[in-house]
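Render Major facilitator superfamily (MFS) profile domain-containing protein in 3D.
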Amino acid sequence: MDIKGNPNQPHEQDEKEVHVTNHLEQISTDSGNDNGIAEKGPAERTQDWTPEEERKIVWKIDFRVFPMLCIVFGLSLLDRTNISAAFIAGMSTDLELIGSRYNVALLVFFIGYGLFELPSNFVIRRLGARWWLSFLIVSWGCCVLGMGFIHEWTILAVLRALLGIFEAGLFPGAVYIIGSWYRQYETGRRISIFYMASLISSGFGPVFAYALSLISVGDGMYSQGWRWIFIVEGVVTVVAGLVSPFFLIEFPEKVKFLDERQKHIALERVAIEKRDKEVVHPNIKETLSMLLDWKLLLYSINYFIAASSVYSLAFFKPIILREGMGFPYAKAQLLSSPPYVFAIIASISAAWVSDKIRLRWVILNFQALVAIIGLLIILYTKPPGVRYFGMFLATYGTQANIPGTLTYGQNQIARLEKKGVVAAAMISAGAIGGVCGSTIFRDQDSPLYLPGMWATIALQMLHIVITFCMSMYFKRQNAKAERGAVLEGVTGFRYAP
């Protein structure tokens, strides 16, 4: 008997195999998969790799994602806040920053910073992260360099406005990149490490600025130390921008340092959780529709609060230390650094705990409460040492909720393309917070700056209320999902309260 059987009567098993093969080929074709791996639906995705393979790939990703991103973001924080060091190093006198001129120079930065964040995240995925971010870095470095050669405060304001435009794309772009590489409860500590590692520059920036302010060349304008703060830091940023294309990482679908299997694992491990592997570039209409999510408004308010508090302390900490606590110029600069060191260690530890216990709101509200306690100590105690201890608490509580609030917003998004929109929208709200933070501490309120301090305290209280209410809502929604409801239009997705 012919083992192939009658050709006019194919076996039933053969028919099934042909049907399955055709079905898989159709799925692969429809999904545009060029790796030879058929795209699976939410219910069909399974893990086809070992935990050891995944750990090795995650480590490999970590060492490619973070080093250069941390360096350039650290430079961006330094370049936007070094104006406070220059102010007390003599710039205020040389440029006649009287009345509200200093506040104007601070707040114009945030106009472009707020307006260009969302357009930048709209562009970054299309042009590629390496080249787009490198262009931005070189551009803002040139702005900082130019500040070292100015003679009028109006030119300072113009350069600060341009600085905001070029810096706008880095932070939301970096958060977008990190969110595309990691799972829901892997992002908390990583965004915190990214932000806090970058914060080292802010911590030691005043010390570095003090050293630069001691430079004096000749008898002309180059004898003015504050100019060298901008000149040296601007040159460093430009050089970093020129070399960054060789070190910055791309989005998962564009990288070349992973082989095909590693790239499959990197994409699929995130897709299993998010139920979304296909890379979609939303058009303007789709982007605007994503902005109509009511939850995004609350994420943005929380980030406005966090950013406002951070900027107000960053811009005015040296001034508070000098005028409010009576420390001389050199000591005020040097004492600005230790609170940041404490904030870095405490924030990363708290983010690790948050990922470990899989709970966000408790940590966020604890940090906001610490900030309130620190601000009250600064306001209502007399000994300078005790008030300085309050600065440690206030710096930790406010700084830690920057990455914490961003992580909270990213964790509630199921689809990758929406993560970029949410990150940009939140950080745009942070730009408005920068305007607030640069104006609530006024000259006439010196030395206690009572209105600005109490405005910051009230905002931290509001952050606590919003975070708690949102998290209780998310818990109720997750309970509904356990009974069969679909969240965010994606089967199997859960919020991270």
